[in-house]
Design goal:
The complex is a heterodimer of chains A (614) and B (418). Chain A is 36% helix and 18% strand. Chain A contains 21 helices and 19 strands. In chain A, the strands form six sheets. In chain A, strands 2, 3, 4, 5 and 10 form a five-stranded mixed beta sheet that branches. The termini of chain A are far apart. Chain B is 70% helix and 1% strand. In chain B, helix 5 crosses helix 6 and helix 5 crosses helix 7. By secondary structure, chain B is an all-alpha fold. The chains are: A alpha+beta (614), B mainly alpha (418). Chains A and B meet through helix 1 and helix 2 of A and helix 13, helix 15 and helix 16 of B.
């Protein structure tokens, strides 16, 4: 074997092998790079694009909502929302949220919720605060360096005028929940979107929502947006459709103003002409603006734990024994069956009560009303008269006829969650519900609007609306120009209707339960109700159902007022109904509004009441 | 002017190529600082690289004037010093940046450097001296042929610093030591069969994960040993077999002793789609960067993979991915050609010198650089596992660039020695 020598033949051979090896190695590299950069370049170009461009939604402004005269009820205004951009690096979300704690009110529980959502949707920007104010936005802008993946986005946000007045009617908006996203109704929605949760916002969600736009933003490896925060818009958002309601926002504010702060209840004002809802108010109320961009958890908790249940819509969902407001239905059935006439007296006059069997059934007036005819009995709301009328009709017939009129139905208002009325369909109801056979004396309770009869204030309003319109009523409508046609026929003849209206008119005449609530310019008709209830045996719910219009003309509005535990329909509820109707009609006829409206208020303040008859 | 340059450079083409690569490196490091998410750490490092480049040229100027004999003399103390430094590094060394768990840097005041880089050059010199002395030793006349046992000495000399580097752990630099050893042994004229037998335990390690493959390999190995039986002593024969068997069987145990990230890197090498967000992430993003560069690239500083931080270690180990993204296939081809030329020149210088020490030094440098270039560029496209190994003259790294230029100086210096 030859010794290796440099230079030498063996060295030259080894050098050749080395050169060949070198060429082979670089040929392998060249082929690898050629494959990647020439043959597969298109694939990788695409991947590099999708690497850095991510789609982000642009929220569409919700449609604006106007009242009947064009006043803005709800609108979309620019709002700031705070997002944390997703990051694939572990711990970045946690650190960012912890740093945000010094600027935003974020407790640990809330951070847990946010992190959970970030895990569920790892590529979506995480919404931290949907309604950041401008001060916070500028503070964060100053501290941008320590919060690199916090992004402030300008998104449209909901804003309500007269927010507390319209809360139950308009409802509120909020972020669509995971449960909602699983429903058919929200099949085209995605997480982070704002949807109507209650009221008009929920009912007309599809119209108000609009269509989300789309933009692409460049992101880095951590998912942070690094180019313009607005990105490249590829699809502009389409705003939601604007809506005009039958509502009178001034009237709503007036009702909110006059309704006693400490009381719970509801006011419904319907337009006789078309059944349009002029006002729909429930007390206590809440501020729907506080829901915008996510309600504070403690505020939400206090709304839900409040014993007064401010989120409960008493006008549409609440059900109460209708009390004497329902005597009109009993009178109508009596007239219809030919069992009573307008000026027919009952065999027994009112002495403050009457014995049936060996039990005393009381009238509300212990002094008694004496002997009355039907019209006077309506005027004075005499229980004894209606006990006897009820006995004449009989339980079975009363049930049959009342069901035919329809008291276990929904009005069909364009609002979500309306409760149907509760009324026994037949005698079996008692056995089913209470476990005993119905006795004939049940009719005594039903005849004065007590017993197993629960109606929503809206339902009673529609009943009086039907009476004001001669027997038929359309479904109450919130949205203007969307008349449903008559959907309820209470089956009353014009003559009988006139008799009942006469009774209602007399309620506002001297001696009637509503006289103190009569007003200067308008003819008021109505019926008070004082309904016993299970809530508090000593304090009854106060009802008043009223119609009002120009003197000598037809009624133009129907107002129903319910005040929970208000004790007296005539003292508590009647003035609210009268003042609401007066306010609306004055506005309609161009008469300056006044805060002193009812006879009672004129007497208290010593101002002259020229219409009063003594 | 030209004469002046060639007097300074000693080997004009070789040094011109290295100057071009270094300058290009500085430009690329500048580019890696041009991000859409400004990173103050990377933004200004190109200036530091430029300063180190100047240091490198200064070192080149000085070292290329030192006497070759002095270099040969200094190789042993340099080797001893390097090994001591490596041992010290294991005790008091610090990590840097992402490799915080690794102890590869020594700190002197505000100055940090990697003893492994010094050790590479010292080992090349010491190894060259050892090999040259074997060839020239009296009594080992021309009739003395190579024995398999002759690889033990050189292997031990390289193995000591290699193990110390591996303990840091720095797999990439350790691979460079293997490259040095293989290149120098190859140049010593040792039969290629011996080289194969030397690396056979490593092959056994790789195939040991499949029982059938390992069995087939062992049968082939025994066959080869039988064919070469006339040249091997029995104990050599047995030693090779025992080593292969031992490595093959303890491979599992060895695998379990690897750090999880190292295991991951190997696994990801075998299947890059394994977990793109975690271990395979580097490779996938690097391939996307290079592939999306296409034929001519996205333009200087305009690489989007880089700009949006999708590329990891973009100014150090993955700088070649940025080159591929911004200059396309044309760019990668040019850089690879530059390195090919430099390596080719090293072979040429080695054959051109009559001095054994010089030619071994040149082949040692050749082995180190070819390992760095092939492993570094190969890992960006998935040809080899992702290893922390920088690209000579281009990757950011002060002591690394300096030592590259020291090596270049030694190369041109010893090549001139006749």
């Amino acid at each position: 074997m030859n010794q290796f020598q440099v230079p030498g033949p063996e060295a030259s051979q080894r050098a050749r092998i080395a050169v060949v090896g070198l060429i082979a190695l670089f040929a392998v590299l060249t082929v690898a790079f050629f494959r990647l950069q020439v043959l597969e370049a298109n694939t990788y170009e695409l991947r590099s694009e999708s690497n850095r461009l991510r789609p982000f939604p642009i929220e569409a402004p919700r449609g604006a909502v106007f009242d009947r005269s064009g006043r803005v009820v709800a609108s979309s205004v620019p709002g700031y929302s705070l997002h944390v951009f997703p990051s694939s690096a572990s711990g970045v979300m946690e650190t960012t949220l912890e740093r945000l704690q010094s600027y935003v009110d974020l407790d640990d529980a809330r951070i847990e919720v946010l992190l959970e959502r970030a895990r569920r949707e790892p590529y979506q920007p995480l919404l931290v605060d949907g309604d950041a104010d401008f001060d916070l936005v500028s503070t964060l802008e100053e501290h941008r360096a320590e919060l690199p993946n916090v992004v402030v986005r300008m998104d449209p946000k909901r804003q309500y005028q007269a927010a507390r007045a319209v809360s139950h009617l308009m409802g509120y908006v909020g972020e669509v929940t995971a449960e909602e996203l699983e429903q058919e109704r929200y099949s085209e929605y995605s997480s982070g979107m704002t949807v109507g949760k209650e009221g008009v916002e929920r009912q007309y969600e599809a119209r108000l929502q609009g269509k989300r736009g789309l933009r692409y933003s460049e992101v880095d490896a951590l998912g942070r947006v690094v180019s313009s925060p607005f990105g490249q818009v590829v699809q502009a958002p389409e705003p939601g459709v604007d809506m005009q309601l039958n509502l009178d926002l001034d009237l709503m504010e007036w009702i909110h103003h006059i309704f006693p702060d400490s009381m719970r209840g509801a006011v419904v004002v319907l337009n006789v002409e078309d059944g349009g809802v002029l006002a729909l108010y429930s007390a206590p109320t809440f501020d729907p603006n506080s829901f915008v961009g996510g309600i504070e958890p403690d505020e939400w908790a206090s709304l839900n734990s409040d014993p007064d249940q401010p989120l409960f819509n008493r006008a549409v969902v609440g059900r109460y024994a209708p009390g004497s407001t329902w005597k009109l239905a009993v009178a109508a059935i009596g007239l219809q069956l030919g069992l009573v006439e307008a000026h027919e007296h009952m065999s027994r006059g009112c002495t403050g009560g009457m014995f049936v069997g060996n039990r005393l059934f009381r009238c509300w007036d212990e002094a008694g009303h004496g002997s009355l005819d039907l019209v006077e009995a309506i005027q004075h709301s005499c229980n004894v008269y209606f006990y006897q009328l009820g006995l004449r009709i009989g339980l079975e017939r009363l049930l049959a006829n009342a069901n035919e009129m329809g008291f276990a139905r929904q009005c069909g208002i364009d609002l979500p969650r309306e409760s149907p009325g509760v009324f026994p369909s037949d005698l079996g109801f008692w056995e089913e519900r209470f476990g005993y056979r119905a006795q004939e004396t049940e009719v005594l309770s039903l005849a004065i609007g007590q017993g197993p009869n629960d109606q929503t204030p809206l339902g009673i309003a529609q009943f009086y609306l039907a009476m004001a319109r001669g027997g038929q009523a359309p479904a109450p409508r919130i949205l203007q120009g969307d008349e449903a046609g008559d959907t309820w026929d209470i089956g009353i003849s014009p003559e009988h209707g006139e008799i009942l209206m006469e009774g209602l008119r007399r309620v506002f005449m001297p001696g009637g339960t509503g006289y103190m609530s009569s007003v200067e310019h308008w003819e008021l008709m109505g019926k008070s109700g004082t309904a016993q209830n299970a809530q508090d045996p000593d304090r009854s719910h106060a009802w008043f159902a009223a119609m009002a219009g120009p003197r000598g003309g037809q009624p133009e509005v129907v107002v129903v007022v319910l005040v929970e535990l208000g004790e007296s329909g005539s003292i508590v509820a009647a003035p609210l109904a009268a003042k609401s109707a007066d306010y609306f009609l004055r506005k309609r006829y161009g008469i300056p509004t006044d805060t002193i409206q009812t006879l009672g208020e004129h007497l208290l303040t010593g101002t002259p009441a020229p219409w009063a008859i003594w | 002017m030209r004469a002046l340059f060639s007097r300074w450079a000693l080997d004009s083409g070789f040094i011109l190529a290295l100057l071009a690569l270094s300058a290009f490196g500085v430009a690329m490091i500048y580019s890696t600082g041009q991000l859409n998410v400004p990173s103050p750490v990377v933004e200004g490092v190109w200036i530091r690289q430029l300063v180190w480049f100047a240091f490198g040229l200064t070192a080149f100027t000085i070292i290329s004037r030192i006497s070759s004999n002095w270099i040969e003399w200094a190789s042993v103390p340099a080797y001893v010093l390097a090994v001591v430094l490596l041992a010290v590094t294991l005790v008091v060394g610090t990590g840097r940046g992402t490799a915080a768990g690794v102890t590869s840097f020594l700190q002197f005041g505000g100055f940090q450097f990697q003893p492994a880089e010094v050790a590479k050059i010292a080992t090349i010199l010491a190894l060259a001296r050892l090999m040259a002395s074997r060839l020239e030793a009296p009594g080992h006349g021309s009739r003395r042929s190579w024995q398999l046992t002759d690889v033990i000495g050189p292997s031990a000399l390289v193995g000591l610093p290699l193990v110390l580097v591996l303990l840091q752990p720095d797999l990439g630099t350790a691979m460079a030591f293997v490259g040095i050893l293989m290149a120098v042994l190859f140049w010593s004229g040792i039969p290629l069969t011996y080289l194969f037998l030397l690396v056979s335990p490593a092959i056994a390690l790789v195939v040991s994960f499949n029982t059938w493959l390992f069995s087939a390999y062992m049968v082939a190995l025994i066959g080869l040993l039988y064919l070469r039986r006339s040249r091997l002593y029995t104990f050599e024969y047995v030693a090779v077999l025992v080593f292969n068997l031992a490595v093959g069987t303890v491979a599992r145990l060895l695998w379990d002793s690897l750090a999880p990230y190292q295991q991951n890197r190997v696994l990801v090498f075998l299947d890059p789609g394994l977990d793109p967000q975690q271990a395979g992430y580097h490779l996938v993003q690097s391939k996307v960067a290079i592939g999306s560069g296409g034929l001519t690239g996205k333009g200087f500083t305009l690489g989007t993979q880089k700009r949006f931080n999708f590329l990891p270690e973009q100014h150090t180990d993955f700088i070649f991915a940025v080159i591929g993204e911004e200059f396309g296939f044309v760019g990668t081809l040019l850089v690879l050609s530059g390195f090919s030329y430099v390596l080719f020149r090293l072979i040429r210088m080695a054959t051109g010198t009559g001095n054994h020490f010089a030619s071994f030094v040149l082949f040692g440098i050749f082995g180190a650089w070819i390992t760095h270039v092939f492993v570094n560029t190969g890992m960006t496209v998935g040809l080899v596992p992702v290893t922390g190994i920088p690209l000579p003259f281009i990757s950011y790294g002060g002591s690394f660039l300096l030592m590259c230029w020291v090596a270049a100086a030694l190369a041109v210096r010893v090549a001139r020695q006749n």
